[in-house]
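Progress against Task 2.4 (sequence-to-structure conversion) is shown through the following example record, which the project officer requested during the mid-term review.
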Amino acid sequence: MIPRASENNRNSGVVDSLAVHNTCISAFLFLLVALCLGGCRSSLPTSTVTPSLPPLHTPTPLSSPTATVSPTATLTPVPTASFPKIDRSPRAVTIEDWAPWAGQTLTTTLKYNPASPDLWQMDLRTQDLSQLDLGYSLNDLLFASFDDRTLWPAADKMPFSFDPQRIMELGKDPGLGVRSLLARGITGKGIGIAIIDLPLLVDHQEYRGQLRLYEELFFHAEISQQPAGMHGAAAASIAVGQTVGVAPQADLYFIAADLATGQDASGSYQYDFTKAAQAVRRILEINQQLPPERKIRVIAMSFGWASNLAGYEEITAAVAEARAQGVFIICAYPSMEQIYGFKFYGLERSPLSPPDLFVSYSRSHFCDLFGNVSPLCQAGRLLVPMSSRTTASPMGKDEYVFYRMGGESWTIPYLAGMYALAAQVDPSITPERFWELALQTGRSVDITGSSGNYTLEPILDPIALVGVLEK
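Structure tokens generated for the chain above:
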């Protein structure tokens, strides 16, 4: 997913997983980084778009157009008894960080355009809607993203069936029966999950108790002064969150790594996967110091890489080392397929539908827009929940945000959490066996809707998968 420039996210210029729905798909043209949700823009009103890639807007330059690359973090040894090891505590995001679009008082009702690929056309995070009459806006609000700071109109000016708090609570549920496994004590306890992402709000209540390590690897010293990003908080909470996560008792090891090295003369960001490779190797180094019963079993990275980009050889070699050591690498298209041949994508869900019911899900909105032109919309992919998720917010340690639309970014930590559950039940599990069982036990659902009739399969069935492992 592509973050807003104003969210202090220099990796935002990289094309994310949703971009592959463009009709001019080329696997090497897209770097499929799912590092946040939606295209950048400086104001909230919906703009006219064509059914192609959302425009990529570059963030405010952090330095000169050609930046000197130098590491700004020294990673220290981790004695076994030294956890948690937190190298920095990025501050929470403020309204000022997200200016000018954040914290507005809206005087015009936003409208949702189903023909648009713009994820943020109904972005109500931090917005004041109290002056609006939304009583007849249910169909638009059903595609809205919002957070704890969104100010809503009085009840008599809201649609009767639209309850933001209820939608928030439904969005916290990982769905597909995961909570029934958690109730049985299958929680990922003792299993290590590593995430390589952007700066994390380390003290959020969703995951602070599970966070065993937070380190940073950046090209630029300025980045170390940035606040937490929305993406890291979401990824961490989807994987191990206390109320949101798939594996709420798994151990979390988090390394914030930079992909952007600077800008060229045109203002386009240049990317280098060297720091990502260093992060993978750092995780392997840490893993060597962990006792057998607390090993890191999976690394989640919401990005992919292509051979024409700097650092390709380094990240490819580092991932090969991790795979040789039995660590499952879960990353974005096309890299996941190149490493293992594993294919997956995400599912849509109406915010009012129960997350546990398989019939609540449908194919991604982008598959409706672009059909099978995108490889992510073609048959044979393992399908997991992606949209209508509530996650930790970067704006406060007890705050939450509901993301109506999602991308590969939200599926990758979900799969990492599921692998942790499987590893708790069967410590001998391998990525290959996990994937084979996920496909074999997956559900099939026939969908009849306005976009036509189709079959969703295989949908991940956590209960059935774990049931096989328990035999």
